[in-house]
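Session log. Operator J.P. requested a structure for one protein chain; no other inputs attached. Running the standard single-chain path with C-alpha cell output.
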Amino acid sequence: MTFDAATLGILWPALIAGLLVTATHVPLGMQVLERGIVFIDLAIAQIAAVGVIFVDAYFGWSEHLGAAVQLSAFGAALAGAVVLTWTERRWPQVQEAVIGAVFVAASSAAILILAKNPHGSESLKDLLSGQILWVHPARLPVDALVYGVILALWFGLRERLGRIGFYGLFACAVTVSVQLVGLYLVFSTLVIPALATYYSRRNRYFKAYSIGALGYAAGLVLSVLADLPSGPMIVCAMSAVAGTFFLATSWTRPAV
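Structure written below.
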C-alpha cells in the first residue's frame, strides 16, 4: 500500500483516535499502576463488550446505533466498576486476583453469547484487535468531547473523586475506547507509557504522552507499509518505543 490521498484519508482519523485514547489513558494508567490494579481495564473493557454483545444478540441492536449501544456498554461497565469498588474496599489484599477472575468470567460470557452467531469469531477479533483504520471521522468530535470531560474531572477533582469516582471515570473512558480502538490497544495505551516512565518522574506526563503518540504514529505507518493489521502493529511499535526509552533512561538511574 502506498501513501496516496486515499491512504492519508484513512490514516488521519485513526491517528486522531489514537491520540484521543492516549490523552485519557495515560493519567488513568499512572493511577492504575499506583493502585496495583493493572488488569482492571481488561476486566471493565470486557464487561463493556459483553454489554454490547448482549444487546446485539438478544435485542438485535447493531453496534452502529450509537447512543443506545454506548449506554448499554457504559451501564455494564459501570456495574462492573461498582462491584470492583466494593471488592477493593472489602478485600483489598486480593483485588488483583478478583479483577482477573472478573475478566475471565466476562470473556467466557462473551464467547458463550457469540457461540450461536455465525459471525461470532469475526466480532470477537474486532473486539480484541479493533478496527482503528476504519474509524469514522464523524464520531471523533463526540468522542473528543467525552474524553475532554473525563480529563477535566480527573485533573480538576482527582483528590475528591474517591474509589467510586475513579472507577466511574475509568468505566466511561474504557467504554468509549474499546469500541474505538479495540481491547488490546486500550490495555497497551493504559499500561505501556505509564510503565515505561514509572522510574522517570520528572516531566513524566510529557514523556508518557510522547511514547503513546509515537507508538500510534509509527504503528499506523508501518502497518500501511507492511500491509499488516494496524492494531497489533501499533501495540508492537508502542512496546518498542517504550522499551527503548526505558532502557535508555535506566543507564542514568542509580541501581535500586
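Operator note: The chain is about 80% helix and 0% strand.
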